[in-house]
């Protein structure tokens, strides 16, 4: 059974982007080191510290599928048809794009978070499904669909913006102790949702 991980880079005050979807200095750590790593796209290198490279090379290859929202899809233009991580992307949307120039790309447009995660888990088998943070994560948490949370915490205070957990107002959720990896200008935190 696939593991569902909600994941994103986050500011110290809990935001994944500003109100205009800009990330400002939050992604600086992706290009502040001497070690080159790649996600799924061989034309999109990241240059990070050795510690972050080790973490990325351990975790990113386990991702089989990603679940993203329509906003991220539009902002990135679906990464021009090449998933940023994993092999297949499931886009939660009520409106399937009809003019996207990459119709054969491994992207599936799905109506609803539960259906998207269900299809992504079926695709992933025993590997990982990554869910982008924001409103999708809040919806997935409320539906009990998240197993773990992965947060790349950067030393930035945005003050306002789009929250890691979106507008989540559900029940209190306990997490197990984190795995903590200190990179350069980023701390990688990984939590499992407590089953006890």
From TrEMBL:
Listed GO MF terms: 5-amino-6-(5-phosphoribosylamino)uracil reductase activity
* Gene3D superfamilies (UniProt xref): Dihydrofolate Reductase, subunit A (3.40.430.10)
Supply the InterPro entries for this chain: DHFR-like_dom_sf, RibDG_C
Q: Which GO terms describe its biological process?
A: riboflavin biosynthetic process
The Bacterial bifunctional deaminase-reductase C-terminal domain extends over: 3-168
What name appears for this protein in its UniProt entry?
Dihydrofolate reductase
Q: Where is the organism placed in the taxonomic lineage, from the top?
A: Bacteria, Bacillati, Actinomycetota, Actinomycetes, Propionibacteriales
